[in-house]
């Protein structure tokens, strides 16, 4: 039997990026029984890595005791001595300092290549190089390959779905007579938010064409919760989970969905890590940048009219906008999305 290897895996944020690590973790555990993974992340994301027998989580309190340089040194001192190697799949200033400190123990370490030059070429408005870039999932896997642990990512590399508890069923009045799909219609940046008229068109058509379908809204933040409550009050086929459950409970709900509708945002990645089919609506960003949900097909990606908006994508994260591109998501073909939803449900 091969000697046990303990790998420190660093990915502190953001939610979607941490969720994208899950399929790689599943693949590694499946192929290498000698591997023990130690995931360093924020407390909120610890549930992503529960239920794995050879995974430990270590919490980085970046706003508290692990803040600034003294905090990073304190964090380094808390890392177990049994760690053999480091996989930095974040590669930001904090993780770079941590790697440097831990390397004094003689630990081998590898870091992610983010492909910044290619992403810049994809998103610039002049001399754009419009091609599919390596996915974040594969970039994570590449780090482990450099450490001697290559994996081939497959659709089966997802977390098992979780059983619904009776309190959850009761709180949302869930029924076996209905099929449930998730809908996360908002995103952090305007360029990635589906216009309200498009949201309502989807909800109205689903109510007419699939009366047995119930839609569960997901979102966060005070304003989002208020907006989702208004939509749920307007459409009888909708209920909202936003603001009603713990994050752990939301994950359980998401894992039991038939389908998730999402913007280019974290909720899509949460569903994908459980193997739930995800339909993604893209705005100022594009799946070519590598942030599409795990192994979802091209048929599940709904894009603006690229003939009308040839400069897309204009950013990797959706935080940039150029004149005339404020309403790119108005050009998304909702009828095509509805057809795909019906095909997947039936």
From TrEMBL:
Keywords: Glycosyltransferase, Membrane, Transferase, Transmembrane, Transmembrane helix. The keyword RNA-binding does not apply. GO terms for molecular function: ADP-heptose-lipopolysaccharide heptosyltransferase activity. The keyword Cell cycle does not apply. Pfam families: Glyco_transf_9. GO terms for biological process: lipopolysaccharide core region biosynthetic process. InterPro entries: Glyco_trans_9, LPS_LOS_Heptosyltrfase. It comes from the Bacteria. GO terms for cellular component: cytosol. The chain crosses the membrane at residues 7-29. This is Heptosyltransferase.
